[in-house]
């Protein structure tokens, strides 16, 4: 077994001294410390002879120890060090077992990101003109010192697509306690339960204090994928956002049309199972959802995805309700703050979002982030929507009304749009 010690700051080192000093059995103490888990990171290694090296120094008076021994020797050295060094406010230096370089360990006080960048745990975040911000990976040493690891997601935003999942991610990834991969991973679409060990490899680094979230908007209406997720990640949490169904269908149409044009006519095929509804994308939204005889093409995936309750019922069968948070997409677009605070509460993380973090940009016509840097959503958010004529609107409302009513029953609460028609 190889133990890697690192001391985060002087107050923690005081605690370490107190805990170690009181304990008769060093092993018991160190076990307790490890269970506390927030200042000593440990790594087990199959190679027990692997060199354990650490060096510590307090201020100018340094104690350097390079041990090639076992846990107990390491603890003795740690105790010795802690008893000789006065309770100081000086940063503590430690030798990295990763690169062997000496470094100062006082995260929080030590500046690791340049001006205009935000220290976000394992990355520095830098605002760009358009979303997303740039993530600059911190050095190996700092990552090691901070316990950065690629972890499986603790939470997933599974959809619904075109309901504001990108905006939700854009805000949440600014939260100091949340990390996101840059892109949608769609991991569960392509992996069997036995392959979920690979999930962490595609995730970004996160500190032990951070929650790793993934957004793949297409999971929501792929029930076989949800079943797989349940088997592989039973404790994970989900944040589902639902926009008003007709607006979502129109937005989904614009999105698919853009893909169709770009790929000269080919549409992505939904392969989950043969009966899964497919997209039918014509040159107008009207033509895509309406037969010439005036009936709705209810089997079109554009409309199917918006019948939220049919899918949500299955989610509730597969996962316990308390692991699923449903957000109102219209409310979120109007005013993101209440939804973001609901997410903070749901995930059990510190409150970060408040009114001061946002402003309404009159020119753009939507709310932007002000703090820690200015960020406005761009791109397809501004895509013009096709005007839906009154007769079609009436048909769509009649179609979705009963599904919206059922959704209220299943959710046991109303959303801003569930009873609006
Ligand atoms: C280290 O500590 C000793 C004993 O407290 C002291 O005599 C010595 O001057 C210190 N060294 C430095 C470089 O501060
Ligand atoms: C309209 O046409 C579609 C496709 O041909 C057909 O499936 C549907 O039953 C028709 N609806 C009515 C009311 O005739
Ligand atoms: C609002 O958006 C416009 C257009 O992108 C931009 O030029 C302007 O600086 C923004 N206003 C504020 C107060 O940031």
Question: Could you describe the 3D structure shown?
Answer:
The strands form six sheets. A five-stranded parallel β-sheet has the order 12-14-11-15-16. Strands 4-3-5-6 form a four-stranded antiparallel β-sheet. Strands 7-8-9 form a three-stranded antiparallel β-sheet, with no helix packed on it. Helix 1 packs antiparallel against helix 2 (26-36), helix 7 packs parallel to helix 11 (308-318) and helix 11 (308-318) runs parallel beside helix 14. It has helices at residues 10-22, 26-36, 71-84, 140-145, 165-172, 187-190, 223-232, 245-262, 285-289, 301-306, 308-318, 329-334, 336-347, 390-411, and strands spanning 2-3, 42-43, 54-58, 61-65, 92-95, 102-105, 117-119, 123-126, 134-137, 149-150, 155-159, 178-179, 205-206, 211-215, 237-242, 324-328, 358-361, 366-369. It has two domains: 2-105, no CATH class; 123-411, P-loop containing nucleotide triphosphate hydrolases (Rossmann fold). The protein has 14 helices and 18 strands. One 2-acetamido-2-deoxy-beta-D-glucopyranose (NAG) binds at residues 291, 293, 295. One 2-acetamido-2-deoxy-beta-D-glucopyranose (NAG) is lined by residues 60-61. The chain crosses the membrane at residues 25-42.
Subunit arrangement of the protein:
single chain
- Please name the CATH architecture of the largest domain: 3-Layer(aba) Sandwich
Tally of DSSP β-strands: 18
What strand order characterises the main sheet?
12-14-11-15-16
> What ligands does this structure carry?
2-acetamido-2-deoxy-beta-D-glucopyranose
- Report the uncertain regions: 1-72, 82-92, 105-109
Distance N terminus to C terminus?
64 Å
Instruction: Characterize the main sheet.
Output: 5 strands, parallel
**Domain module count:** 2
Helical run tally: 14
Measured as a percent range, the helix fraction is 25-40%
Q: Roughly what is the average pLDDT, rounded to an integer?
A: 77
Roughly what fraction of the amino acids lie in strands? 15-25%
């Amino acid at each position: 077994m190889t133990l890697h010690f690192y001391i985060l700051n002087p107050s923690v080192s005081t605690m370490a001294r107190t805990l170690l000093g009181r304990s008769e059995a060093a092993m018991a103490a160190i076990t307790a410390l490890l269970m506390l888990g927030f200042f000593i990171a440990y790594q087990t290694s199959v190679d027990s002879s692997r060199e354990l090296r650490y060096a510590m120094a307090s201020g100018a008076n340094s104690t350097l120890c390079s041990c090639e021994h076992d846990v107990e020797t390491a603890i003795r050295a740690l105790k010795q060090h802690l008893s000789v060094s006065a309770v100081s406010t000086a940063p503590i230096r430690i030798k990295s077992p990763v690169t062997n370089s000496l470094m100062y360990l006082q995260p929080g006080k030590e500046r690791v990101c340049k001006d205009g960048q935000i220290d976000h745990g394992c990355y520095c975040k830098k605002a760009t003109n358009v979303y997303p911000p740039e993530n600059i990976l911190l050095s190996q040493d700092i990552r090691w010192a901070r316990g950065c690891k690629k972890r499986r997601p603790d939470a997933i935003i599974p959809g619904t697509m075109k309901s504001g999942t990108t905006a939700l991610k854009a805000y949440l990834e600014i939260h100091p306690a949340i990390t996101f991969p840059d892109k949608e991973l769609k991991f569960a679409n392509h992996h069997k339960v036995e392959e979920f060990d690979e999930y962490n490899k595609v995730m970004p680094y996160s500190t032990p204090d951070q929650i790793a979230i993934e957004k793949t908007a297409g999971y929501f209406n792929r029930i076989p994928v949800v079943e797989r997720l349940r088997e592989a990640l039973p404790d994970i949490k989900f944040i589902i956002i639902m926009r008003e169904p007709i607006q979502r269908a129109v937005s989904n149409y614009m999105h698919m049309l853009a893909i169709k044009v770009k790929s000269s006519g080919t549409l992505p095929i939904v392969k989950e199972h043969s009966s899964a509804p497919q997209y039918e994308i014509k040159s107008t939204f009207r033509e895509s959802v309406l037969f010439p005889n005036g009936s709705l093409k209810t089997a079109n995936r554009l409309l199917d995805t918006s019948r939220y309750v049919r899918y949500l019922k299955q989610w509730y069968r597969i996962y316990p309700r308390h692991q699923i948070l449903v957000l109102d997409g219209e409310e979120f677009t109007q005013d993101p703050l209440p939804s973001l605070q609901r997410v903070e509460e749901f995930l059990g993380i510190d409150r970060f979002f408040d009114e001061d973090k946002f402003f309404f940009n009159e020119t753009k016509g939507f709310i932007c982030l002000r703090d820690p840097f200015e960020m406005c959503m761009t791109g397809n958010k501004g895509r013009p929507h096709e005007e839906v004529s009154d007769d079609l609107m009436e048909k769509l409302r009649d179609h979705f009304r009963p599904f919206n009513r059922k959704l209220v029953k299943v959710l046991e609460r109303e959303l801003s749009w569930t009873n609006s028609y």
